[in-house]
Design brief:
This protein has 93 residues and is an all-alpha fold. The protein is built from three helices and no strands. Helix 2 (32-54) runs antiparallel to helix 3 (61-87).
């Protein structure tokens, strides 16, 4: 594995760990629905950077419905996750 690939892997792991910690800390301070909105909207700038870097601006018509369903399922899963963090003693750890 190259040094740049290893550095990227460590950066991604660190980023996910910080993201998870932030979600757990914010679950005690904000309503679950607010957190879902923040997480969903917070992903949009990253998606925009990815789209610009990839050069893909158009979405194929057959992709739109499954993509929107995936976003909806993700939002429901995030809502359940944040409620679980708020209700469970696991959120303390």
């Amino acid at each position: 594995m190259s040094a740049s690939a290893l550095a990227l892997a460590f950066a991604a792991a660190g980023g996910w760990a910080l993201y998870d910690l932030l979600r757990k800390l914010l679950a005690d301070r904000l309503p679950a629905l607010t957190l879902v909105a923040l997480v969903t909207l917070g992903a949009l700038p990253l998606l925009a950077v990815w789209a610009v870097a990839a050069g893909q601006w158009r979405v194929a018509p057959g992709y739109l419905q499954p993509a929107l369903l995936s976003v909806l399922l993700n939002m429901v899963a995030n809502l359940a996750y944040f409620r679980a963090l708020q209700l469970s003693p696991v959120s303390i750890t």
